Amino acid sequence: MVMEEIVLSTPQSLAQQPAVVGSIRRQTPRRARIAVATTFFITGMTFATWAARIPAVSEQLHLTPGTLGIALFGLNCGSLLSLPISGTLVVRLRSRTTAFIGFLFYCLLFPLLGMMPNVWALACMLGVYALGSSLTNIAINVAGVAVEQRYNRPLMGSFHAFWSFGGVAGSLIGAGAASINMPVWLHFGLMSIV
């Protein structure tokens, strides 16, 4: 498969390639569905955890709304730059392995988001963190389509509902951590362990 085909591939077309979703196809449909839903939940929880602590990070680094925008711009740049890489990795390594690599980025880099010394370091770290996010998101969407195909009915809405449930959990945990003034790096570190 050439690079242009990988970049232009949809989750549906990737999910039809046995080499891409081989591990999903070997699991029982129920186990595969639970695994994908759990992964969506975790990614939603991680996103909401970060979002809930943006005010603390902003205060810690004395960011103005404009400098916070610069930091968040790093997140978007990293995500955009990683999309072609994500598609290639899903094709070459399969969705399960690609999601695992993405989760390693989540776990290793998440606590560092609370330790950055300035806006530029935060922007760069958010860009690298976005790489893990994109790897995971592309891989789990491809896996979700593969599970849908096994069930022969739409399930993607339920997977994205699990992302939202994770978002609620992450928001509540983030609010609790903020209310006791837990250091951001410690909060993110504990979330990475969990």
TrEMBL record:
Domain Major facilitator superfamily (MFS) profile: 32-194
TM segment ranges: 34-56, 68-91, 98-114, 120-147, 159-180
One Gene Ontology MF term: transmembrane transporter activity
Gene3D superfamilies in alphabetical order: MFS general substrate transporter like domains
Keywords for the protein's UniProt record, in alphabetical order: Membrane, Transmembrane, Transmembrane helix
Mode of membrane association: Multi-pass membrane protein
Location relative to the cell: Cell membrane
Highest taxon in the source lineage: Bacteria
GO cellular component: plasma membrane
SUPFAM superfamilies per the UniProt record, alphabetical: MFS general substrate transporter (SSF103473)
Main location (coarse class): membrane
PANTHER family: BYPASS OF STOP CODON PROTEIN 6, INNER MEMBRANE PROTEIN YBJJ
Official protein name in the record: Major facilitator superfamily (MFS) profile domain-containing protein
Native species: Thermosporothrix hazakensis
